[in-house]
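Recall that a protein's primary structure is simply its ordered list of amino acids. Everything else, from secondary elements to tertiary packing, is in principle encoded there. The following example makes that idea concrete.
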Amino acid sequence: MCLPTQDKIDAIAELKERIQSSSIIVMTKYVGINAGQVSDLRKKLRDSNVRLKVYKNTLAMRVLDELGYSAASAFLDGPTAWAFSDDPAAPSKILKDFGKDVKNVEMVGGILDGVVISREQLDALANLPSRQALLGQVVGTIAAPLRNFVGVLNALPRNMVNVLDQIRKQKEESGAAA
């Protein structure tokens, strides 16, 4: 029986911790890209607080089985890079955009808040507006009725002044005609 090395034990512990502490994990194929492209991808991911790491598939399958994500093992065919983030949309957006320029980078699946998701679901996630844009839409939706209400409240005194001005004009005209 072969005992695991300390490196393998550490890699398993690290992967478990990252899976359990990340909101989203995106598994990506990256065969055939050069070192410059890898550096560029890592920089883009790092700028959005996304960590990228490669683990041996045999170790990763073991961790996925232990954590109850056996279905995600289907995504581990060949070299696979793992992107970890707390922002559910960031890694899928970056990887999808990067994959447009570098054809050998392709999302294959992932885990979102404890649920195994497919490449299609990652693509849908990548197409969503950013968190800031969504928050802006929510605030705009909430603020619209308030803006309208303030407009109505502001119109009341203005309308009252207009009515009084019309009454004044009518009295002046009727006084001048008499």
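The chain has two domains: 6-128, 130-178. The chain has a mean pLDDT of 85.
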